[in-house]
Design brief:
The chain has 180 residues and is α+β, with helices and mostly antiparallel strands. It is built from four helices and eight strands. The strands form two sheets. Strands 3-7-4-6-5-8 form a six-stranded mixed β-barrel.
């Protein structure tokens, strides 16, 4: 009986480790000969700027067998999401991750200080669930990845990494397409 339990526990441990490895592998990409930043970004539904930012790349040069982070697949996308959507008129303000008390980490775990090119909005999860892809008039395609204490009802905050540009955004009424 002891032998059976030990064997069973070993199998469970090995299965969980292989699942962990496959999840880790899904968040990286090994550059193939002929790849470009554009082709990799498109394949993983990122912008080139997001891919460069995530990997701290200073130029567009990549080499075969180089391993790139592509974990933001579930984050903002600059391409139009497929499927149906609903439309809401919402009040939009802007925020940055550069205030003294700001961690820069969204409610869904995205690091905005390390990835300033991500298109993220802060939402009331009762109105727009976290993780939802949206299109915000005047801002573009983004992901609902954060929530704020002042964001209630039909209000959103758009993330803008530059404080001056965030202040210039001001307060405005925008049309938001919420993709299902």
């Amino acid at each position: 009986m002891k032998k059976f339990i030990v064997t069973l526990l070993t199998c469970v441990l090995l299965l969980s480790l292989s699942t962990y490895k496959s999840e880790a592998a899904a968040s990286t990409y090994r550059v193939q000969s002929g790849d470009t930043l554009y082709s990799i970004a498109k394949k993983h539904r990122l912008t080139v700027a997001q891919l460069k930012s995530m990997n701290k790349l200073k130029s567009n040069v990549i080499k075969p067998n180089q391993v790139l982070k592509v974990a933001a697949v579930k984050s903002a996308s600059s391409t139009k999401p497929s499927g149906s959507y609903r439309v809401l008129k919402m009040t939009a303000t802007a925020y940055t991750a550069s205030c003294k008390s700001c961690s820069g980490i969204t409610a869904t775990g995205l690091n905005l200080k390390k990835n300033p090119n991500l298109k993220v909005i802060s939402v009331d999860p009762k109105v727009i669930p976290l993780g939802t892809k949206v299109y915000v008039e005047g801002y573009g395609y983004a992901i609902a990845a954060d929530k704020g204490s002042a964001v209630r009802g039909n209000k959103i905050d758009v993330f803008i990494p530059n404080k001056k540009r965030a202040l210039q955004w001001g307060k405005r009424t925008v049309t938001v397409r919420i993709y299902k």
